[in-house]
Write a sequence for this structure.
């Protein structure tokens, strides 16, 4: 290729690259215009607080019941797995037996 043809090819490539960049910028600007909110309005989520009619004449909320902090003594806690004597007497365990793959071998003593 002659130097004139090289210069012409370079100019055409540069012109094509510039047109592609301009087209990309135009598409980006058009998408940003579409995304921009056109009508911004503030919405109030709840109505303003107003007093209930007749609230002055009604009694206030009842007081919280006093708690002792002690455990109720009516029902004693039950073990999840009853001992062997209770199982022989007919007591069923509350939990099913663990699957075999979840039982680990005993830890050896040091």
């Amino acid at each position: 290729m002659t130097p004139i043809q090289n210069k012409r090819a370079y100019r055409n490539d540069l012109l094509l690259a510039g047109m592609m960049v301009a087209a990309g910028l135009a598409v980006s600007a058009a998408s940003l215009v579409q995304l921009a909110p056109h009508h911004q309005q503030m919405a109030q989520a709840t109505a303003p607080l107003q007093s209930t009619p007749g609230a002055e004449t009604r009694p206030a909320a009842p007081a919280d019941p006093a708690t002792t902090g002690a455990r109720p003594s009516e029902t004693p806690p039950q073990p999840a797995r009853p001992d062997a004597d209770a199982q022989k007497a007919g007591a069923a365990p509350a939990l099913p037996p663990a699957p075999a793959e979840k039982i680990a071998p005993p830890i050896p003593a040091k």
Summary: The mean pLDDT is 79. Residues 1-35 form one domain. The chain is about 35% helix and 0% strand.
